[in-house]
Each structure stands twice: as structure tokens, then as C-alpha cells.
Design brief:
heterodimer, A: 4-stranded antiparallel beta sheet, 23% strand, globular, B: mainly alpha
């Protein structure tokens, strides 16, 4: 499904601020795999997701998605196959456009946009149905600007938009980190439901260790631009926070420092 | 203000209203400060005047002006998105380049249309109205049609992508839109409208002048802001309507100011830049003043 091979990325090369963000990162994902990604600040996990999305070109390495080499593709072209949800709820929607316009924009992801009506009548019913399943009452507010929604509502809408056209790969970059605990739980439930329902191949970055352990079938940990842990199957199912900390210490020969990672 | 001056302000308001729609499209929709309009307004005028001078139908000359304006805007877009030049600078570069281009097109600094049939003449004859009524009517029709077309366009798939490009470029790229292309398209459309505006102005005042574009952007911004402050609203249709009404209001205000006489002091056309600046300051601060008075 996805094969990333020896991805390398250095920011500000040759300057005093030089950062080796990704150091020969390789990762293979099977179709339908739900992988949680964990690591401390600056470990390279978000950089890795952004490099997959094509936000910036990488210095070396190849990315194959669905048998196609996408390494040289610009961000907008990759978006035809990759769905994304950002950490900041304001980033995922267009505040000036209405809810139905936002969904209509997502409805055309990866397709040619022409002079047909932006919001089609037959799509509106589908939008309403999908929104109804969120249980947030948004189905009655199709014509409200997305800018009027709360952070949780916007993030739920972003989630819906990311999968409205089924992506080959779904990238979630700490998409619950900016929300209060209750809202975060709601978005997480929605995430699990959508990923299972649509059998989405998913990479989910999180700072929350329990989330990383409790969700998905595979966990990878980034540290200083490298994947240092890759736990799956039986081992992943039985994993506890203490195990993870110990595995980290064994892998690096140092204690795991939690800048912002949460144990609870 | 005399009725004659009033109709004059209307005809100016509608003719420059097309340019104001263009400025609305770049400044408000795309969030792109585009000064190309100072060059694309006389570009439209020059192309139209040369075409008419060469014996083409005045309506056809408007189409040519639009095409030239679109190209000018696309050049600014290209400089910004493909060559990564800062938006403001990219538009200034196109603007000054257009000064030379316009001189080349006309072959001299100005070109009169005396004795040549303009759209205004044709419409006045066909309608049987006196010219001071026929001109605002003609320009009003054209501008209202353009405004409707713009609202329609902004509701299409492509138009929504354009709105989103200004509103949240990161999000719309993640939905598969090449924002570089939408910016080029938006700037092209904006400057096509501006060039059309210049063509109408040239046909109305009987000629094109290479310097007629000076201050276009300031007048355009003043109109957009004035319209927003007085008639503004959330929806795109409302904002487009506000832009056209803002243009009328701006020309009426200028018309009123020009008729102003305080004792021996009379406002002259050379005071217009000062008046425009004062109008913009007033329009920008009015909402805050209103809020303060209320609270």
C-alpha cells in the first residue's frame, strides 16, 4: 500500500540552525493498517507525515503509494489519494465558506473542478445524512459558515471532509491535541468508526501514550528522526505504558523524556 | 449637486465599478494585494482605443481589452506563484512593465477617439435617450451583468476553490487544488474586469491616455472599503453588491466634494487624492466609532 524508503530531510542545511529531521526513515504499511505514531517533540513524526503529504520535498528517499512513485508529486496532486486532518481545527475548514460548501470542496478532492454548481442538490442530502451521524446537530446548519463552529465541531467536519472521497492513505497529525478531553474523546470515537467502516490505511500521530497503545493494530515510535520502535500484532495488544517506556530505554539506552507526552 | 453631475457620477461609478469588482476579487477573495490594476486599466483603454481606431467594432474591442487584462493579471500570478516573487512586488513589476507596453500599443502617450464610433454613441443612438442618461444606463447594464457573472462564478466548483484559496490555502491544497493555478486564474479575471473598465472609460471620455491608471488601486480600495462599511454582509452576493454600490458612493462623494465651495475656497480636481485618502480613513474607522458610540 505505502512504502517509504530511506526518507531523509534536513532543515536549514549548512546553517547553525541545521536540523536533521528525518534520518533514513523507512516504513511499509499494509492495506487497512491503522498505525499510531508517537514520539517526543522534534522527533520527526510530524515531519514524516508532512513529507508523505508532500508539504516539502525530501532530500533523499522514495515514496510509493499504491504502486505509484509519488516522490516528485506536489502536495495538491498527492491530495487526490491522501486525506489529512490537522492539529489546529481552524486549519481543516474554510471559515468563510458554509458547511455545505466545505463538504462540496472535499467532495471534489482529486477531481477536476469545473463550472458546474459548487454545491449540487443531490449531494446536499448525502451531506445531511453524514452530518446527522455525527450527532452534533450540524445537519440543520448546512448554510452556516464553518467559522461559526466550535473547535470540536470543526474537527468533526474536517474528519468527515478527509474521508468523503475515500483516501488511499489517511494522515492524522495530532488531530485531537487542541481539543478539551471530552471533545477529544468524541473525535477519537469518530476516527475509529470511520477508519473501521471504510477500512482506511491510517497513520495517526499522537502525544497521548494511552491513545497510541489503545488504538490501532501497530505502534511506531520516532526518536531523533528515526523509527526506533515498531510494535504490532499480539505484542501490541498486550502493550502497557510501562512496557513502552522500558522498550524505549532499551532501544536508546536512555530514559524517555516526556516534553509533552501524556501518560494518562 | 446638479442632476447632470449626479448622472455623471453614476456613469463613472458603474464604469469604474468593474475595476472595483476586480479589486474585490484580489484583495478580499484571494487576499492578494494586487497593484497590477494601475497598469491594466490603461491597458484595457489602450487596446480598446487602438482596436476602434483600426476600424473594429467597439463591442469587439471590449473583448480584446478583457483578454489583454487577463494576460496582465496572469503575468503577475506567474511571477508570484511560479517564480516565488512577493505578491506586492510581483504586481508592481507588472504594473511598471505595462506602462511601456501601453505606450507600445498606442505608439504615443494618448489616442483620441474623436469621430470614431464608440459603444456609448451606438447605444445612445439605438436607445434614443439623451447621452447623459444613456451612458449610465449602458454602463450600469454592463456592470450589473459582470457582477451577476462574478457571483455565479464564485458559486461554481472552480469559484469555491478560488474562495478557499484566499481563505485557507493549506486546507484547499490538502483537498487537491493547485493554489498556484487558482491564484493565476483569479488575478487574470480581476485584471480582465479592470481592463474592461478602462476600455469603457476610454470610450466614454473619447480616448485613452497612458497616465489614466494612476491611483486606480487607491480608488478601487476606497470603493471596496466604503461599500463594505455601508452595505457589507457575509455572503458573496452581498459583498459583490456592496463593491458595486461602494463604487457609486465613492464617485458620488467625489462629485459632491468637487461642487464644494466654502467662501473663496473651492475644491479642485487636484484635491481628489487627499479626499480619497480621507474617505478611506473615514470608512476604515467608522465601524469602530459606531461600536464605541453604542457601548
Amino acid at each position: 500500500m505505502l512504502a517509504a524508503e530511506d526518507i531523509r530531510k534536513t532543515f536549514f542545511p549548512g546553517s547553525p540552525n541545521e536540523v536533521r529531521a528525518l534520518n533514513n526513515v523507512s516504513l511499509r504499511l499494509d492495506p487497512g493498517e491503522f498505525v499510531t505514531v508517537i514520539g517526543s517533540n522534534g522527533s520527526g513524526k510530524s515531519t514524516f507525515l508532512n513529507s508523505l503529504a508532500g508539504v516539502f520535498p525530501v532530500d533523499a528517499g522514495r515514496m510509493i503509494l499504491d504502486g505509484t512513485d509519488i516522490t516528485a508529486w506536489p502536495e495538491w496532486r498527492r491530495a487526490a489519494r491522501i486525506g489529512r486532518v490537522f492539529q489546529d481545527p481552524a486549519q481543516g475548514t474554510c471559515p468563510g465558506a458554509t458547511i455545505e460548501q466545505n463538504l462540496a470542496l472535499a467532495r471534489k478532492r482529486g477531481q477536476r473542478r469545473g463550472l458546474g454548481p459548487g454545491v449540487r442538490r443531490r449531494d446536499r442530502e448525502m451531506f445531511r445524512e453524514k452530518l446527522r451521524r455525527l450527532g452534533l446537530g450540524l445537519e440543520d446548519r448546512l448554510r452556516d459558515p464553518a467559522g461559526l463552529l466550535s473547535g470540536g465541531q470543526r474537527q468533526a467536519l474536517s474528519m468527515l471532509m478527509a474521508v468523503l472521497v475515500k483516501p488511499r492513505l489517511l494522515l492524522l497529525d495530532e488531530h485531537t491535541a487542541a481539543l478539551d478531553p471530552k471533545t477529544a474523546a468524541m473525535i477519537l470515537d469518530l476516527t475509529v468508526r470511520l477508519v473501521e467502516e471504510l477500512q482506511l490505511t491510517t497513520l495517526m500521530v499522537t502525544h497521548n501514550m494511552r491513545q497510541a497503545i489503545g488504538l490501532g493494530g501497530r505502534l511506531i515510535m520516532f526518536h531523533r528522526g528515526e523509527v526506533i520502535l515498531d510494535i504490532r500484532g499480539e505484542e501490541k495488544r498486550n502493550l502497557r505504558v510501562e512496557d513502552l517506556l522500558q522498550r524505549f530505554a532499551e532501544a536508546r539506552g536512555e530514559e524517555f523524556t516526556l516534553d509533552r507526552a501524556l501518560l494518562v | 449637486m446638479t442632476a447632470y453631475a449626479f448622472f455623471g457620477a453614476l456613469e463613472q461609478g458603474f464604469a469604474y465599478g468593474l475595476m472595483v469588482l476586480g479589486v474585490y476579487l484580489t484583495f478580499r477573495v484571494l487576499d492578494f494585494p494586487d497593484l497590477t490594476v494601475d497598469g491594466s486599466l490603461p491597458l484595457g483603454a489602450a487596446v480598446s482605443a487602438v482596436a476602434i481606431d483600426a476600424g473594429l467594432h467597439p463591442a469587439l474591442s471590449l473583448c480584446l481589452a478583457c483578454g489583454a487584462g487577463f494576460l496582465a493579471g496572469a503575468v503577475t500570478g506567474f511571477l508570484n506563484t511560479r517564480l516565488r516573487i512577493l505578491h506586492l512586488l510581483a504586481s508592481i513589476l507588472t504594473m511598471i512593465a505595462l506602462y511601456s507596453v501601453n505606450l507600445r500599443i498606442m505608439g504615443r502617450p494618448n489616442l483620441t477617439l474623436l469621430g470614431k464610433p464608440t459603444l456609448v454613441d451606438l447605444f445612445t443612438q439605438a436607445s434614443g435617450l439623451p447621452q447623459h442618461l444613456a451612458t449610465p444606463l449602458l454602463f450600469g447594464l454592463i456592470t450589473v451583468c459582470a457582477a451577476c457573472a462574478l457571483v455565479w462564478f464564485l458559486r461554481t466548483e472552480l469559484g469555491l476553490a478560488l474562495l478557499a484559496t484566499g481563505d485557507n490555502p493549506r486546507m484547499i491544497r490538502s483537498l487537491g487544488v493547485n493554489t498556484g493555478s487558482t491564484i493565476i486564474l483569479g488575478l487574470g479575471l480581476s485584471n480582465a474586469l479592470t481592463a474592461l473598465s478602462g476600455a469603457l472609460v476610454a470610450q466614454n471620455q473619447g480616448g485613452a491616455d497612458v497616465n489614466m491608471g494612476v491611483g486606480t488601486i487607491v480608488a478601487g480600495l476606497a470603493s471596496v472599503i466604503l461599500g463594505e462599511t455601508v452595505f457589507g454582509g457575509r455572503s458573496v452576493a452581498r459583498a459583490v453588491l456592496a463593491a458595486v454600490l461602494g463604487s457609486l458612493l465613492y464617485r458620488l462623494a467625489i462629485g459632491l466634494a468637487l461642487g464644494l465651495r466654502l467662501g473663496s475656497f473651492a475644491v479642485t480636481p487636484s484635491d481628489l487624492n487627499l479626499i480619497t485618502a480621507l474617505l478611506v480613513v473615514l470608512a476604515l474607522t467608522a465601524p469602530r466609532m459606531k461600536a464605541r458610540v453604542r457601548s
